[in-house]
Amino acid sequence: MERARAGDADARGQLVSRYVDDVYALAARVLGERDLAQDAAQDAFVNALGALHRFRGEASFRTWILRIALNSARSLARRRTRRREVALAAAEDVPGAAEDPARRALLASEGERVRSALATLPEKQRLSVSLRVYEGLSCAEIAEVIGSTEGAVRVNYHLGIKRLREMLQ
Amino acid sequence: MTLWTCEQVREHLPDALAGTLRAEDAHALFAHAGGCADCRAEAELLQALRRHAEATPPGLEARIVAAVSARRVPWILRTGRPALLAAGLAGALFGGAVLLHRATSPRNAVPDLVPQASSPQAQAPAPAAGPGGITPTSAAPDVRGLAQPLPGTAEAGLFSSSGSTDDLSEEELQTLLKELQS
């Protein structure tokens, strides 16, 4: 971290490598668009690494950068003009299904249903579910990222799961 | 083996599926889910969600690294030396204050390099005198110019060496000021 703070390119590259998946995934779930999500992810890293001197280590770096990513994504969402959204699943490549077209179609269909259902959740429920299930953050960590309380996150998570079960059963 | 309630299972399902639970806890959790239709349905839902996680597009990491590398880190932050930071900013502020003073001070506030007011030469009025009774001669430097740097003063070259605040943009100086004030 100290090397990254001092501008060491390798150290900064390692930070990018370690957290790019989490940052992109969060941006994608907020924005629902692949291209915008990439822009938001880039903004998040540029902002975070440009402000490393402000990271005091009170929270984990992961929750810190995810919080920045969320702000970047929300900022882009506000600036986004009304246009047709490109489905995130447009170029999905389901691992392990390449040789079986039927399985691939089934998984692609399931993927579409899952993504659509997730997208209909209110933002806090969607974020609580996503960060818990995909990134494995605890409710306390999610609360830090989205600026809520642990109790509220827990409630939003369970409400979100309940709604998903109703939509996908 | 500890028996888990439905509430405990649902609380820890994400951790169990991510493989971050202790082995004995995971075993207890899945043992419960195996016999509870409700918890099993929730486990299947979470597994479906995880099957369709967003994949990072290829090339994004390289793009971000390039963008981060293009953003220059101010030299003073690279050194990480608070004393240098403070000294550099103090010097910049001092230099700015001197320039401001020279820009606003009256013209007859002459430095030591011109004849003093007590000398007969300075007191005698001359037809070619400038404002304030100053008579420039070929031997004395022309001090009528307001922004003329004098030898030995701060603005004459203290910050002209490499690594000085001359290298910092206005934005970077503002950043340093905020660091000092924080």
Give, in order, the helices and strands of chain A: HHHHHHHH
Work out the radius of gyration of chain A. Answer: 17 Å
Largest sheet of chain A: none
Structural class computed from helices and strand pairing of chain B: mainly alpha
- How many individual helices of chain A? 8
DSSP helical segment count of chain B: 8
Termini gap of chain B: 54 Å
Runs of chain B with pLDDT <50, length 5+?
108-164
Note the run of SSEs of chain B as H and E. HHHHHHHH
If you had to describe this structure to a student in words, what would you say it looks like?
The complex is a heterodimer of chains A (169) and B (182). Chain A has 169 residues and is mainly α. Chain A has helices at residues 2-5, 9-31, 34-50, 61-79, 101-120, 123-133, 139-146, 150-168. Chain B is elongated. Chain B is mostly helical and 182 residues long. Chain B starts with 5 loop residues before the first helix and ends with a helix. In chain B, helix 1 (6-18) packs across helix 2, helix 1 (6-18) runs parallel beside helix 3 and helix 2 crosses helix 3 (37-51). The chains are: A mainly alpha (169), B mainly alpha (182). Chain A binds chain B through residues 2, 5-7, 9, 12-13, 16-17, 20-21, 24-25, 28-29, 34, 37-38, 41-42, 45-46, 49-50, 53, 88, 92-93, 107, 110-111, 114-115, 118, 129, 132-134, 136, 158, 161, 164-165, 168-169, and chain B through 10, 14-15, 17-18, 20, 41-42, 45-46, 48-57, 60-61, 63-65, 67-69, 71, 73, 77-80, 179.
